[in-house]
């Protein structure tokens, strides 16, 4: 798994191999040179938009951008082990935090587009206000590239939490179950 520092160093190598100064790259990428320097300092991961502009400005071909996007997504993952977070989850809020770490850095809009699951439903899962249906949550975890181990941990956590009275789906005002 790539981390933020490694990703920043890889961006720097691409710029050097392209033979560009940060000022030259700034003209091509349409971001200020200090902004681009911060993107490679290894302390903070740049947004995907900045990283993509940086790479495009360095002449990286469009067909390699999905590879870079995957590298960026790996670097953006929560450094804590998602499986541990899931195995330690005792509430819906804990489950939501673990799933949020797994889905990071994707937006709710991107998650909804990738899965066909409404944004409001995904948001409720991530906030821990709605108990997710097993198949639909597995669909989300698959869409973000969750490993077999992560998918199994999600299933175990759902099984464990579904027996807990504390996380039973709440009834809405209309009496419908809050299962999504």
Order of helices and strands: HHHHHHHHHHH
**Largest pleated sheet:** none
Radius of gyration: 20 Å
Number of helices: 11
Estimated helix fraction = 55-70%
Shape: elongated
Report how far the terminal alpha carbons are from each other: 31 Å
Q: State the total count of DSSP E strands.
A: 0
The class by helix and strand makeup works out as mainly alpha
List keywords for this structure.
180 residues, mainly alpha, single chain, 11 helices, 0% strand
Structure, described:
- The chain starts with a helix and ends in an 18-residue tail after the last helix.
- It is built from eleven helices and no strands.
- Residues 168-179 have low confidence and may be disordered.
- With 180 residues, it is mainly alpha-helical.
Fold blueprint:
Layout lengths: L3 H15 L3 H8 L3 H7 L8 H10 L7 H12 L5 H7 L3 H12 L4 H8 L3 H9 L6 H10 L4 H15 L18
Helix pairs in contact: 1-5, 2-3, 2-4, 4-5, 6-7, 6-11, 7-9, 8-9, 10-11
Could you give a quick summary of the protein structure above?
The chain is mainly α. It has eleven helices and no strands.
